[in-house]
User: Fold this.
Amino acid sequence: PKGLADAMKERGREFIGTALTLRGNATEEAIARNPADFNSFTPENSMKWESIEPGRNNFTFDDADRYRDWAKKNKKEIHCHTLVWHSQLPTWVSQGGFDNATLISIMKNHIFKVAGRYKDVCTRWDVVNEALNEDGTYRSSVFYNTIGEAFIPIAFRFAKQASPKSELFYNDYNLEYNGNKTLGAQRIVKLVQSYGVEINGVGLQAHLAQETTPTAGPLPDQKTLETVLRGYTQLDVDVVYTEIDIRMNTPATPEKLRAQAKAYETVAKSCLAVKRCIGMTVWGISDAFSWIPGVFPGEGAALLWDENLKKKPAYDGFLKGIKAR
Ligand code: G3I
Assistant:
């Protein structure tokens, strides 16, 4: 195989993706376009609620449409992101003050308009994003506080009606450690199923660290990762690593870059060890544009291409993990 996606398909899996922001960087775009490496992408911000429905029933589809067009032109799948999330939510929603029925109708309108518009291009949808606290309880949000946990199955039901062909995912971070949050997402899968509503997968964001940093790490070992993935597939859903990046305390050194390559290899191997791990998405191409240093100063260098858009050892580690038998 010539690249990541080629290798992944050769192993009988569906896709390798990247988060994508079309910012006019031709080198970055060419890497994302290369079909040998990527056959899928996730729009990094353009389909989020504040971008797409900034005012009530006021939809601004132009930016998201660019990604749909890019996907068609470059023959990519889109992992669409995300319909119901407490963050990047416009104030008119997050400030609340709605009764239960009104908020459900707001959610319904949002999901039908957005998922409906892109029903032919969204291979997968992150229907509900980050509904859990670290201890596995539900996060306080306008959705949970107004509707209760039923907001989750209700969102999945609307999404299936609006976009019947898309695979529907619950997506969250820090599910990779086999702790209470891992169990919380299992509970969510069972909750949706108990409503007789279809849920097709769990997305594990995999914002990981190769070493202990002030905000993460150490990396879960391969066995733990496999156990976590199987905990979901046993519930009859697929799993995907949806937003992989593996950060370090910067600056990078040759030694850290080697450890990072190993970390990427471990994550890839864990996916390939579990039959229903259908794909993996890395959260961006180049370290130059990653969200990490802005949010966690002193951490970063988490992706497969460095700040000068040169391939890092992590790329080879990831490819090695995909190919390993
Ligand atoms: O576009 C505006 C620009 O006009 C403005 O001048 C600038 C000033 O702050 O902000 C720009 O928007 C930023 C946007 O990224 C686009 O660059 C937002 O401030 C910034 O908050 C936003 O960050 C995104 C973040 O989600 C927001 O929560 C990151 O790009 C994106 O990588 C990150 O992705 C999330 C996933 O959606 C969910 N899981 C975690 C992951 C990492 O945080």
Notes: The CA atoms of residues 261 and 314 lie 4 Å apart. The first helix runs from residue 4 to 10. The chain has a mean pLDDT of 98.
